[in-house]
Amino acid sequence: MSLTDKEYHNLTISISKAVSNHEMPIKVKHVRASIIGTFHSKGGHAFWAIAIRQPIQENRIVAWKFCHLLHKILREGHPLCCQHSMRHRGMLIEAGKLWGHLNDGYGICIKHYTKLLVTKLEFHDRNPRIPGSLALKPGELERIGEGDINFYFQLAVEIFDYLDDIVALQATIFNSITTFCVSSMTSAGQCRLAPLIPCVQDSNPLYDFVVRIMFKLHANLPSDLLTGHRERFRTLFHQLKSFYNQSRNLQYFVNLITVPKLPDAPPNFEQQSDLGNYQAPVIVMPDSDPADNDTESVVSDSLIDTTEAAPPIPELPHHHNNHHQQSAAPQTPAPQLLELERLLRERDDLIRHLQMEIERLSNYVKSLTIEQRDVQHRLEDQIAQLNSHLAQAQGELSTLRIQKEELELRAQTAPTLEQKAQAEEERAKASEEKFQKLKTMYTQIRDEHVKLLRQHGEVSKQLAASSKAASDATKAKEEVRIQLDELHQQQAVVQEQLQQSSSESRREQEQVAEELRQVSERYETLRSKYEEMEANRQAEIAELRISLERVQGELGTFQSDREVLQAEKGALESSLGEVQSEREQLNRQYEEVLAKMEALNLKTEEYTKEEASLQQSVQEKSQQAQELVDKLDRLQRDYESLQQQHADLEAAKAAQEQEFNRIHEEDLLKLDSLQGELSEKVTTLSAEKDNLFAVKEDTVQQLLLLQTESTQRTADFDSLEKDLKNVIEQKDHELEELRSRYIEMEEKYQSLDANMDRLLAEKGAIESDLQDLLHQQEEMDARYQTALGTIRNLENSLADAKITGESALRALLEACIKSSEKLTLRAISENEMPGAGGTPTYFLMIAEELQDVLSKLTIVHDNYLKDNSTNVESLARKVIIGAHLLASAHVQGMSICNRSANIECGERIAEEVKQLGGSIASLFQSLQKTSESDAVGEKIIDLKDKLQAVTDMIGDLSKQTDGTENLGDLVENELSSMDKAIEEAAAQIEEMLSKSRASDSGIKLEVNEKILDACTNLMQA
Q1: Topology of domain 1-133, CATH
Q2: Contacts by 3-10 with C-beta closer than 8 Å and gap 24+?
Q3: Which pLDDT value is given to residue 332?
Q4: Which family does the record claim for this protein (predicted)?
């Protein structure tokens, strides 16, 4: 759609403020307004129409901000902005070349930025399925490539070129910041750094695209073939990483954008497993305030989504408890639902038809507006060009006039100069005669100074050639006078010093002669220049006259063309008004259709949403209950397995205790046996000692051996005792460990018991919730049945309303017939009195009846408004009678004016009758428009006042006349005017019918159509 004048003006202001010449970043609100303007205009034509008028080539700040604004428009504006901007690539290239010669920091930056914008436009032109924001859904890149490996190969090269331009721009900006020592927290620094934000937003998805494309290329092509791609990617990877690190350290970007982080090393494309570990870098932009979101949410291509069909009414399943399966019986759709679906389909068809018609009319109006605006721009340019030519011609004419006056003044002063020059020549001749007498005396001196005289002559020629006094006659006069005075002085000096210095006298004589010669040459030069100037002046005056006549002829042609264009503009404006009225009528019909379907659609959507949400919640609860039951079963199995493990541990513990007791008893038995053996051996030794005491020397050796054996046995016993103690300690430690494990198992068992109790409680709560949901489902079934009953009642009331409307229509038709019958009988009775028409008495009778009808019309109209437009019968009757009487009164009044003998009084009455006719037309216009219903009473009162004024004037006239006018002609005029009034009333009724179709709907529309059709047929009959 096209922009209105107000929207176009606001867009112009926003763009002008965005690209102002102040060295500060662009304000977000101006960028947002420009972006919204592209959506309102459905493209970038309006933006470029305003942008090309900005001083981009005169101010470097404006050019820099324009590049930033255009980048934002291409990213976030209407999808057609990239396509519409392609035709302006040449302007961007020329601007970059122009500012590229400037070395103040902005020039090189503008050059690189324009190159980046041209690359972006060409990239989107070659790849139209990639949007300007470079935001693609998952898998959309594969759908764009369609598995063509050649396409991916070429796309990778284009993305590399795109990233090269971004890297070059950011490097230039940072170099400018560093070179000119600009801080990022000042307005100048922020103005230079602000475009880096869209550069980061562009480079991030481009990096993601190229990584995925490189993996796909390496999966389908040999590695050697992609060596160049890998080298370019590696270089760009390090450059982008450096760019992101530099941007992340800027304080200015902290609250504006979260710059992504790249990995330490580039991906290894030769290993496809790295693709699974790859994570796309993410940019985080801060959320805008709610006001901004609300403003931007208004921007949409369509207000209503009419492509979506009406949602079906889902069937409600019957839910049972956990021990039964769910079952659902399909319900047979009611006839009301079928009728509702049919109405919805008709509504969708009507909406689609209206949308197509609105789109067609919008395109037509848009084309007309664009053509009109182009014509207007061309006319304005031609007017400005002609005005500049006219001003230039006037300036040249004034300059020539001044030159003419100067030349005339010089021509007047030239004769006096000539006389003075002749007088000076005579004086010079006299002086020369005196010098001739002295010539013979200085012959020898002249020969000695020949060389000096030649040099002096050359210098004099150079001075004469470089003289600038040739164009100024006054200056020449003064120079001649001064030279003559000097000549007299020099002559006197020569005469006085003649005897003293012959060389000086000769030099002075030569100087005087040379000066006289110079004066003569200057005079001749002045005369020749004056003649040349006079000839040039005459030629220039002739050329100016010719050019002036040509300009006047072009001006006349332009004025005639301008009048023709103005006429065409008026015709276009009238056609535009008709198109706009048709569009408004279609919009009203569209709103009526929406209002008509809103009531039925609202209840259907409510029931659908409630049933869907109920069904979803029941399914979710059922799933949760099933999950809890499964979880409970798993916990029960875990509990049983833990009990089995506990029993196994108890059995192992008992077996270990039995084994320990057995080993301990065996050790005790061994110890007892050793002690018994030891005691027996001691007893034996004692007996042997007693028996062999006598043979001590023989048994000493045996005794020593026995002592040694006893000592060894004692050591063995001690070691055995220590081993037994170690075994006992180890068993005690194992026993403690078993006891601790037993305690832990007891604690786990208790926690499992607690969890089981909690799960049982949750299960009970879920079962209760399920019962509540089943109860709610039953309530919803009851509400659904109630809604069906309400729909049936509405259908019955609709049928009753149709019957009532038909009866009201019949009553209104009868009222119209009765009113027409009354008017017909009145006309017949008036025809029986042919002499009464056109007389003041007849007019006064009509006026008196008309006053009464207008008073009743006021009352009936007030009742019509109070009853919400239901009492149409009385209003139609009074309107028809009133229209007939008003037409009769107007015709009779004009007839009386034309037949009046008093011309002055007749003219006054004619003026009043014309004003009465205007009030009549205004009254019927107010009756037709529902928006002016409140003003009907005031207009009836005004009409009555004007009717009374006409009545008084005709009454005064009737007193002055004798009433001998020709009544037959007046009756004929009255009948013809009555026919004309009836035709006008029929046309007005047709107009009321069209407006009623545009503003009313349903039964009211049918009733009004039948009423107005009946009235029209009666009036035409």
Answers
A1: 1.25.40
A2: 3/37, 3/40, 3/41, 3/46, 7/37, 7/40, 8/46, 10/37
A3: 41
A4: Belongs to the SLA2 family.
